[in-house]
Write a structure and sequence with these properties.
This protein is mainly beta. Strands 2, 5, 7, 8, 10, 12 and 14 form a seven-stranded mixed beta sheet that branches. A five-stranded antiparallel beta sheet has the order 3-4-6-11-9, with no helix packed on it. The chain has a four-stranded antiparallel beta sheet with strand order 18-17-20-21, with no helix packed on it. Strand 3 and strand 4 form a beta hairpin. The protein is elongated and about 65 Å long.
């Protein structure tokens, strides 16, 4: 996904200002949340934990502080920006930082600085407000300090980690919506009306003209107040007809059961 800026193109770890070719992104929003690094570019680590995690995951309490370190592992001096951003989530469940917005209630001690090759900078992330809960991303971007003088492809780096400030009293409340048969799958819309991002799993039983098909749901995190279309079964082996889907959704052992009919067209 490249675009030109005069004679210059940014080859970035992630998406940087609508530029980017040969993109590579280092992420730490998976369940393990281990140390994130854009190869040969930026590396992120936590200073207050020993398990290698870089994901901030703690109760939502005003004044909570976490200490991190970013290292320049490239061969060029980098201008670095550190920004807390809200997540966006698509109907498929995919999340990405909203690069047009900043996450309110979170302060970063060092938001812009330069790093020589091999140098590092320590900074802190502080929850300044008292939200019931708050979920977002910590985005770190590094661009060569002499980017304005370069021509052609210019490497840039981007590391994304998760910020999870959890509710003191978690509420698990899933609201099943419409069921739909698309060309690829049968899906069920599910809204997270609770206050956690605990993964949603479960099972499905699809009864139709030729018998019953059972399956399990892939674990998916749904942001509070967001709706995601969960894949129930693939369309590849379904004959046209009317089916009855019985779905059991599970979030941290709390079960929500729903039965719906769906028409699969030719």
């Amino acid at each position: 996904m490249g675009s030109g800026m005069g004679l210059k193109t940014i080859a970035a770890a992630g998406v940087l200002a609508a530029c980017g070719t040969a993109a590579v992104i280092a992420r730490a929003d998976d369940p393990s949340g281990r140390a994130a690094q854009a190869d040969g570019g930026l590396a992120l680590s936590r200073l207050d934990v020993r398990d290698g995690s870089v994901m901030i995951d703690r109760p939502a309490q005003a004044g909570a502080v976490d200490h991190l370190r970013v290292i320049n592992k490239s061969k060029s001096a980098l201008d670095v920006t550190v920004t807390a951003r809200p997540w966006t989530q698509s109907s498929s469940g995919a999340v990405s930082p909203n690069r047009r917005a900043k996450l309110g209630g979170v302060a970063v001690s060092e938001s812009t600085f330069s790093l020589a090759p091999g140098a590092w900078r320590d900074f802190s992330v502080t929850l300044t407000s008292s939200p019931a809960y708050l979920y977002g991303a910590l985005e770190i971007v590094g661009l060569p300090s002499d980017v304005s003088k370069r021509k052609g492809v210019v490497p840039g780096y981007r590391v994304v980690s998760s910020l999870r400030y959890n509710a003191a009293k978690p509420v698990y409340k899933l609201k099943p919506g419409a069921i739909k048969a698309s060309r690829k799958a049968v899906t069920l819309k599910v809204r997270n009306s609770g206050n956690t991002i605990a993964p949603v799993t479960g099972s499905v039983r699809l009864r139709g003209p030729l018998g019953t098909k059972n399956g399990s749901l892939k674990a998916t995190r749904i942001l509070p107040r967001k709706t995601v279309a969960l894949n129930l079964v693939s369309r590849s082996n379904l004959r046209p007809g009317t089916y009855t889907a019985t779905v059991t959704l599970i979030q941290n052992k709390v079960k929500t059961k729903v039965t719906k009919r769906v028409r699969v067209a030719r």
